[in-house]
Write a structure and sequence with these properties.
Elements: E1 2-5, E2 8-14, H1 15-21, E3 30-32, H2 40-47, H3 51-60, H4 68-79, E4 92-96, E5 99-103, H5 114-117, H6 120-131, E6 136-142, H7 146-155, E7 161-168, H8 174-181, E8 188-193, H9 197-208, H10 211-219, E9 222-226, H11 232-251, E10 261-266, H12 271-281, E11 286-293, H13 298-305, E12 307-309, H14 330-337, H15 342-355, E13 357-359, H16 362-371, E14 372-376, H17 379-393, H18 399-415, E15 421-425, H19 433-439, H20 448-459, H21 465-468, E16 480-481, H22 486-494
Parallel strand pairs: 5-15, 6-7, 6-9, 7-8, 8-16, 10-11, 10-15, 11-14
Antiparallel strand pairs: 1-2, 1-3, 4-5, 12-13
Length: 495
């Protein structure tokens, strides 16, 4: 299978090449030329498998050059009990008779990014070998909170790689910041960016397009690659957990084979919900794809109107991983739904860069609206959702998950759709103690770790060990830079 640039479909690479470089040289994203068929037979076979086996089976359909045994080895290493604290890896939690929560935070950094970023380093490392690439990979990542730590953890001390993570200086939670700046590993680096996530992400994208920088790095034996969801190797492992969740419902007798299930996904950069769309393209019986946004509701407006307009106030919210106004992975959706109209996608992205907005044509808008529902959730509503889930069901969720829960409730009220539905939980509530404590009526007190103890007592659940283990760890990285200075940071990092 080949992977095409969304801005020039004549630029094609095999999976190893696409994952190794991450971003096409024309600024486009790599998208698969086809979607393997996931028939009823596959769903029956997958039902009897472990999560690790499901991962190697599904990913193998896209990675022809990777053998079954090596993918199974990668999956065991990525999702084994030494990395994930739940035997199901991505378990479903029943909320009520027709609603489940897909918990994606049982990995080493307590966020959904672990499901991809425990796998990606292995895929990139092996891709270099398959390509016969003599240079080493410098992994650049921009994070709105969770990607950074998950990428650092995944790539720490991985041979032939170095990783540098940029995060918005005041745009992550204190626990997210601590996770990053205390990261161990000889090949890791962290830098705060003075600005918001879009400044960090835009800066990283600009570095990938900088020919002069690429030439300098080439001479030093390096090339740039990405750990953000612009990399196909980030999207692919995420397809797995949507298929796995469906198989779990099927195996438990909660649904019948072929019955459609709705998925509601808290969304910022559009990568997570795009993975669900790709699972649907493979034939997974997905009903409505429900896109949940916080106050930064650019995606909600886009799906409802067909106009993408980032020219709006940026809000720092209690769900910071969703504080994004430029959703990079939307480009892949536009490419697929326009039937690979690369020139149309290129025009939209040029309009976005020049004017901060674009408007899709009527046909494309109708296709999007037939597949997706979009809703947003303000700060007060987010807190209410946390409080309601805890009061009514004894279930503790973080601020991002609460957005999804609230938008799902709104979708059902607006449409009357009673189909079985899953909302996606992207982070442990203990990563956002202050906001969760406030929501359930407890005054936060003390430092970050004392607040973890508060939430353990109030919520009646234990905090994940990867978070409590941060207590007393020294902060290694204190660097901050303007967006215009990110190139210098990269050069200094690589020596």
């Amino acid at each position: 299978m080949q992977y095409l640039s969304t801005r020039d479909k004549t630029l094609r690479l095999r999976a190893a090449g696409a994952m190794a470089i991450g971003l096409s040289r024309d600024g486009g994203l790599f998208a698969p030329e086809a979607f393997p068929d996931l028939g009823t037979l596959d769903l029956k076979v997958l039902g009897a498998m472990s999560y690790q086996q499901r991962a190697s089976f599904i990913m193998g359909k896209y990675l022809e050059a990777f053998g079954t045994e090596e993918l199974e080895r990668f999956a065991q290493r990525a999702y084994g009990p030494d990395r994930f604290d739940h035997p199901d890896v991505a378990p479903l939690h029943r909320v009520d008779s027709n609603t489940w929560c897909l918990e994606l935070w049982h990995g080493p950094t307590c966020a959904f990014k672990d499901l991809a970023l425990q796998m990606l380093p292995q895929l990139i490392s092996e891709s270099l070998n398959k390509l016969g690439e003599e240079r080493d990979a410098c992994i650049l990542a921009a994070t709105s909170g969770d990607t950074g730590k998950a990428a650092l953890e995944g790539f720490a001390d991985v041979p032939r790689t170095k990783i540098l993570v940029f995060y918005p200086e005041h745009g992550v939670s204190e626990m997210q910041r601590l996770q990053m700046v205390t990261q161990s590993g000889e090949n890791v680096g962290v830098c705060a960016v003075r600005g918001n996530f879009d400044d960090a992400q835009g800066g990283v994208k600009a570095l990938f397009s900088d020919e002069a920088l690429r030439e300098v790095l080439r001479e030093k034996g390096w090339f740039l690659s990405s750990a953000n969801s612009i990399n196909w190797g980030r999207i692919l492992p995420q397809i797995v957990y949507y298929i796995s969740a469906y198989c779990d419902l099927l195996g438990a007798g909660e649904i019948k084979l072929g019955q459609k299930v709705n998925f509601c996904v808290p969304t910022g950069n559009f990568g997570n919900i795009l993975s669900c769309y790709y699972a649907k393209r493979m034939g997974l019986p997905v009903g409505k794809l429900i896109c949940a946004s916080n106050r930064n509701d650019v995606l909600t407006d886009f799906i409802r109107t067909g106009v993408y307009d980032r020219n709006r106030p940026f809000h720092n919210t209690i769900s910071p991983s969703m504080d994004i106004l430029v959703s990079s992975n939307l480009e892949r959706l536009l490419f697929d739904l326009s039937e690979w109209d690369d020139q149309l996608v290129k025009k939209y992205m040029a309009d976005l860069a020049a004017a901060g907005r674009y408007e899709v044509n009527a046909a494309l808008r109708e296709r999007i609206q037939s597949l997706f529902y979009a809703g947003s959730c303000g700060e007060r509503e987010t807190g209410t959702a946390i409080r309601s889930l805890h009061r009514d069901y004894g279930y503790l969720v973080d601020t991002h998950t609460a957005v999804a829960a609230k938008v799902l409730t709104g979708y059902r009220a607006e449409t009357g759709d009673t189909a079985p539905s899953i909302f996606v939980s992207t982070a442990s509530p203990f990563k956002f103690c202050d906001s969760v404590l406030d929501a359930i009526g407890v005054e936060p007190a003390g430092d970050s770790f004392q607040r973890i103890e508060q939430l353990e007592k109030a919520g009646g659940v234990s905090a994940p060990r990867p978070l409590t283990a941060l207590r007393g760890r020294p902060e290694r990285f204190r660097q901050a830079a303007d967006r215009t200075d990110m190139e210098r940071v990269v050069r200094d990092f690589l020596g």
